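Database export, one record per block. Field names are fixed; values are copied verbatim from the stored entry.
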Amino acid sequence: MQAEPKKTQAGNAQADAAEPAVSLVGQEYEVEIGPVAHGGHCIARTAEGQVLFVRHTLPGEKVIARVTEGEEGARFLRADAVSVLEPSKDRVEAPCPYAGPGRCGGCDWQHAKPGAQRRLKGEVIAEQLQRLAGLTPEEAGWDGTVMPAEGDKLPAGEVPSWRTRVQYAVDADGNAGLRRHRSHEVEPIEHCMIAAEGVSELGIEQRDWSGMASIEAIAASGSQDRQVILAPKPGARLPIVELDKPVSVMRVGEKDGGTHRVHGRPFVRERADGRTYRVGSGGFWQVHPKAAETLMLAVMQGLTPRKGDTALDLYCGVGLFAGALADRVGEKGAVLGIESGKRAVEDARHNLAGFDRVRIEQGKVESVLPRTGITEADLIVLDPPRAGAGKQTVKHLAGLGARRIAYVACDPAALARDLGYFREGGYRVRTLRAFDLFPMTHHVECVAILEPAEKGR
């Protein structure tokens, strides 16, 4: 008889434990905004001390922040600044009509002056280097600046049209648009301000795309090639594509997820370092029209290749850096590229067919590189995906004794982590350069040049 109350109490405790946490979505706080953080937001705290990651604001502002994600007791909340009480001197009226709380998620800094955007990105890089690699800017050989691409240094209120590849989503009414921040909802648009002219002139936003899940528009910067890649919804028929400019058309297969040619070339042609590169559907090429040349020059200037050098180009894509290296190491040198994408490997082999001592292997770097039997190299370039190369791959690379290593990174956190691993492997950062190749967004590109630590002593 006495056991029943105990069971009831236990049952109540279990019920209490199973109750979901109280959502704070929609809750508003008046807060003072602190420093910028990695990810396109700034940090603030509620009166109770809970951390807020606040978008659409700038350091030093006082705002009303409305919670968009999070619950009581969570480590942090996500929020939007829905009212600015005390604006920063770096704030401007967002030029894009689709920017702002609850709207398009493509741009993070439409409300900031261009110079302020670059300064914020520099602060993020510095913070990540210090926190994850224990490096000051001086120790990384970096002057703290983020350089704009040629032609992108515009007055406040003007937006560079740089995005040569745009992925449109399609809403239930067949309108092309862009995803809202951290959402599958579609923001229909009439024009994307950061889209390159070659994308805008296709007129994607002006036609009905009923039955399509998404459309990717590509405008090569190295040629007049234009391409659209259509992803139909299950069971939908492909529309007749009639756009404002000639395009080749590809479709994403419903069963295999691969990209298949409908009509026109299955690739676009890009240019860098005086060479034409074929880039097939799904193949990687830098989105900013000046990015490939800018990064290639930064890497070659940092590595200073010599005739006869042996070099590795890891995560090599369609062969941008491998081609630049092959030109510079000459007939007595050798270059090995490794890339996981099958189509990209086919393109790289085509693009570099004129070099007898260039070899491209397909597979993941961490799997292929150990199988090659390579025990040393003079130069290494790595341009890993956003997650970085990782500890084991870095350890392997550090053991090859390269004279110099060029690390190209689109994520400062991954870069900083891997630089820490390289330091454990006996390498130091000789120089670091940062480039604003994604204006209006929080993304930034870095090129770090490393050398054996004893050379820096």
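Remark 1: The two ends are 80 Å apart (CA to CA).
Remark 2: The longest strand covers residues 76-86.
End of record.
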